[in-house]
Amino acid sequence: MLGTQKRWQEDLFVAGPLSSLIPDDHILKQVDKVLDLSWLRKEVADLYCSNNGRPSIDPESALRLMLAGFFEGIVFDRKLMRQAQVNLAIRWFAGYRLDETLPDHSSLTKIRQRWGEERFKKIFLKTVQSCINAGLVNGETVHVDATLIRADVSWESLTTEHAETVIKENTAEDDKPKGRGRPSKKQPKPKKRSTTDPDATMTTSSHTHRMEPFYKQHGAVDDICGVVVDVEVTTGEVSEGGQLPDQIKRIEENIGREIETISCDAGYAHGKNFEHLEQKNIEAIIPTQKENSKPKRLPIRLFKYDAKNKIVKCPGGKILTCSSHNEDGSIYRARNKDCKYCSLRKRCISESAKTRTIKIIPGYESLLRARRRHKEPDKKFRQTYSRHRYQVEGMHGEAKTQHGLRRAVRRGLSNVAIQAYLTAAVINLKRLATYAGGLSDVFLGYLANIFAVLTSQIVMRIFLTNRTRKLNWKMTG
Ligand code: SF4
């Protein structure tokens, strides 16, 4: 029979608590079981006047509102407060009664400004600590990766940096970096910068293959349950490879132990990084990039580097000595007369060149060792790197598709960092609610599945046995 719903009916009173109207498996109800913000009031107390002024919004309620927004993928304050008016779960999670007036959206902006980036970093670190306490992090293997966040600026706001170009062109000869190498004839292209968000820098996205204003999130995820153990935001042009030593230091501080294995993509395969990991005795699961050698030239690997004596021995048996040195590496040059009469000259240098030069980057020996080790990756390398894909790259995908990190909501490095910390905190709370708070539910779910499979197999076996018996009876009868 078709049912009807009386839409005009309005209850004057609702019996029972507000929580009884929210399903038990709702994410905010699950997270509420594991979320402890009792420390927050004390943490931000110094930012408020103790004996004067209008009472502020309760810090815990304000943070709960922000977190609820990120859980629901609502990153804009105005939209969040509109949703909170009608969303029972958000109201209950933030601690507001049905008839209570919610704060204005602008209050959340003021709170973010007042608390600053450091307080939000602490909120994120507290979620890491909660996951450690619940046994969801062991810190043995950590996956590291970076992802771009599109800045909240329009194409019209981009302008070319004329001033910087003019200053560079007029730089006096004396001010140029010292070194005996040949000066570069190439003039750098004038950069573009946004006038509305100067912190964002132009970077090529691997997705769209064009230069856009970006920020970059450097993230690290523990291998056990995918808990985010470190997050840092920089401008888009910062190379992720150069951030690894600092990132390892932060991760070890956050989890309170030394890492044993680290996995990264080929963007981190720098000689410096391999050297640092060797010094710290950390196993590197990093695919090495192929040697960048010009075709038809003797590859650099045939030149033997002697780090002790600071010389390079070429395939022709001659010695190349260091001619210039900077932070990118050392240039080793053969003598003109050695190359002039060498039998390998045609395969080694071009017609116009007089001599061969080799660049030895910092940590070159460690890079060679890593290349040799990973030439034929072993089982552990393959397994850990496949976990890297879905753990840290999966975390970045989750942050972008479910929690709005694809695009920065506000402008400025500090605001984007706050967005990244809140997103990472929300992901950790989800892991905590799933593995710690909801473990019994998950376990019961598994048991129910196993029982259903076993029951169906037993029923099927009985059915098949009966059918075989009938067939046998027919054939013999
Ligand atoms: S051309 Fe010069 S650098 Fe190359 S193998 Fe001969 S001597 Fe060595």
Notes on the protein architecture:
The protein has 477 residues and is of the alpha+beta class. The chain folds into four domains: 99 residues, no CATH class; 195 residues, Nucleotidyltransferase, domain 5 (2-Layer Sandwich), CATH 3.30.420.10; 63 residues, no CATH class; 40 residues. The protein is 44% helix and 14% strand. It is built from 15 helices and 13 strands. Strands 1, 4, 5, 6, 7 and 8 form a six-stranded mixed β-sheet that branches. A five-stranded antiparallel β-sheet has the order 9-10-11-12-13, with no helix packed on it. Helix 3 packs antiparallel against helix 5, helix 4 crosses helix 5 and helix 6 packs across helix 14. The longest helix is centred in the C-terminal third of the chain and has 38 residues. The relative contact order is 0.12. About 2% of the residues have low confidence. The structure holds iron/sulfur cluster. Iron/sulfur cluster binds next to helix 10 and helix 11.
